[in-house]
Amino acid sequence: MASSPAQYLIRFDDLCPTMLSNRCERFLSLLSLYKVAPILAVVPDNQDPDLNLQPPDPYFWDRIRTCEAAGATIAMHGYQHLCTSSGNSLLHLHHETEFAGVSESRQREWIRCGLEILRGHRLNPRLFVAPRHGFDRNTLRALACEGLGVLSDGFALRSFTRHDVLWVPQQLWGPVEKSTGLWTICIHTNTATAALEEKLETFLRSNSKQFTSFNNVIADTLPDNLSWSERLAESIAYQRMRMSAAKTRMLHAS
Ligand SMILES: [Zn+2]
After folding, report:
1. Which of 9, 30, 62, 134 has its CA at a distance of 20 to 30 angstroms from the CA of residue 38?
2. Class of CATH domain 10-253
3. Where are the domains of the chain?
4. Exposed/middle/buried for 63, CB within 10 Å: 0-12, 13-18, 19+?
5. Measured in angstroms, how far is the CA atom of residue 228 from the centroid of ligand 1?
6. How far is the CA of 13 from the centre of ligand 1 (A)?
7. 15 by DSSP, 3-state: which?
């Protein structure tokens, strides 16, 4: 049986009132041109100085509400984006993260506060995006308990359930043509180059029909676990990514 063609989701990370709003707008306009609905990963209460890139935009929350009304999905991107914990993450791609290694009660409190902030801005957060892929079993338990049981992360080729949470995979940081599977492309608009913007436009021009939305993925997902062969493929993809992350760290350290 022939496998179905690849499907793509796109996610923009690190959205907060002090992000570089013009850059984010450019990417959002590009997607609306091709009628693609993104996942917007919003930091509820940013305290990370690295994301303080301009004075707070007084219209930020209005703009995000407008995007959600137009079809975007809102993700909660951590709580304050302060990556000061060095606990072990289930996906160990960075040494310091916000959530991994923090007590379950504290993580639950952060998730509850984050949801309150986003809902206070009249947004409807549907899933969680952990800063720097940092999350552990406590995070997953806290997410399930707080009713936000969907995560955008991992290296599988489809959505699946693990530890009571639905995982929607996220494996790419730029557009790459794939033959089959579900692929989420994550773009950090604050640091995205003009070359990446151009590459995305070219990719959308040829592949926009293969982009799906979070709602479609959820509607099509059976809440089941990965088979052993899918877990093996996931593990190989993850190890490859860990090696490449380690290489990048070495290059940056030198
Ligand atoms: Zn982030």
Report:
1. 134
2. alpha beta
3. 10-253
4. middle
5. 31
6. 6
7. strand
